[in-house]
From TrEMBL:
Name the record gives this protein: Orotidine-5'-phosphate decarboxylase
Single GO MF annotation: orotidine-5'-phosphate decarboxylase activity
Domain of life: Bacteria
Leader sequence residues: none
Catalysed reaction equations from the record: orotidine 5'-phosphate + H(+) = UMP + CO2
Orotidine 5'-phosphate decarboxylase domain segment(s): 30-278
EC number(s) recorded for this UniProt protein: 4.1.1.23
A biological process term (GO) from this entry: 'de novo' UMP biosynthetic process
Transmembrane segments: none
Keyword Lyase: yes
Associated pathway: Pyrimidine metabolism; UMP biosynthesis via de novo pathway; UMP from orotate: step 2/2
Length: 287
């Protein structure tokens, strides 16, 4: 680990991400709002589909919701499509989340061979990186251990990761359910559990389990309680899941769940009060 980073990490003395997330969920409720500046949403907000529209959209969401929800989750792809200037807006958005004392989750879904993974860890989890968020989403489908550089870097800098377990899209089952009782997804959730051993209430290695997975946890014999993982659950609203569906799917694991919704909240904008009202209504459906 570079010594300059070690000094910066010591100076920051950031508590572990799992602890910070547990506090944010206790204070604001179990909702993360995704910042997904889709071209259609930019148009609906009266904004141009360019870097100016992207910036106005992102700043409006952060200003409306910072300090009111447990976390904000910018979708990296929707910044990347605007090139390097889009990534500069993402940097500004992440900095504004930090200034607003709101946890940021960069939805980048990174995953590569270990040597390349180390560079992704530098970017998304490194101390002093302009793109570093409080946590980043990771894909373990090059093998869970390929994520090791990011897992280690998150532990070192007090940041977190969310590892894709059971995704919200219908195609996910064709990979993740393979193996029945010894499924691919169960292998991932067991590995995440080993990472969080001894952590209470959560460790800093989270899982993504879609709000739309229905009875899959039971069918695959996945015990989330034993993982001590915070669960990021996308699929609320625009992908069809409701708070009631999620409570039925997650059952006893509910205290670990951070629901996340993007389009269903964002469509209320650009008015700040309307955005807050939509976020509050969504959060209330999860209480
Ligand atoms: O990692 C994610 O956040 C994610 C995982 C998953 O399984 N499904 C999923 O929808 N997501 C992301 O969550 C967001 C969902 O957006 P909405 O469907 O508009 O609420 C998108 O940015 C997706 O990329």
């Amino acid at each position: 680990m570079p010594s300059a980073e070690a000094r910066a990490a010591r100076a920051t003395r950031r508590p572990a991400f799992g602890q910070r997330l547990a506090s944010a969920m206790a204070e604001h409720g179990p909702l993360c709002v995704g910042i997904d500046p889709h071209p259609g949403l930019l148009a609906a907000w009266g904004l141009s589909d360019d870097v100016h529209g992207l910036r106005s959209f992102s700043l409006t969401v952060v200003e409306a919701l910072a300090g009111r929800v447990a976390a904000l989750k910018p979708q990296v792809a929707l910044y990347e499509r605007h090139g390097s200037r889009g990534l500069a807006v993402l940097e500004e958005t992440l900095a504004l989340c930090a200034a607003g004392h709101t946890l940021s989750i960069a939805d980048a879904k990174r995953g590569d061979i270990g040597s390349t993974m180390a560079a992704y860890a530098d970017a998304w989890l490194g101390e002093g990186s302009v793109l570093a968020a409080d946590a980043v989403t990771l894909s373990p489908y090059l093998g869970y251990e390929s994520l090791r550089p990011a897992l280690d870097r998150a532990a070192f800098t007090g940041r977190g990761v969310f590892v894709l377990g059971l995704t919200s899209n219908p195609e996910g089952a064709s990979v993740q359910h393979v193996g029945g009782a010894g499924s691919v997804a169960k292998g991932i959730t067991d590995a995440v559990g080993a990472e969080n051993a001894g952590a209470r209430p959560f460790g800093s290695t989270g899982l993504v389990i879609g709000a739309t997975v229905g009875g899959a946890l039971e069918k695959l014999g996945i015990d989330l309680a034993s993982t001590a993982a915070p669960i990021l659950a996308p699929g609320l609203g625009a992908q069809g899941a409701t708070g009631a569906d999620m409570k039925a799917s997650f059952g006893a694991f509910w205290p670990q769940v951070l629901g996340t919704s993007s389009r269903d909240v964002l469509k209320a904008g650009p008015d700040a009060a309307a955005l807050r009202g939509a976020a509050e209504a969504t959060r209330d459906s999860l209480l």
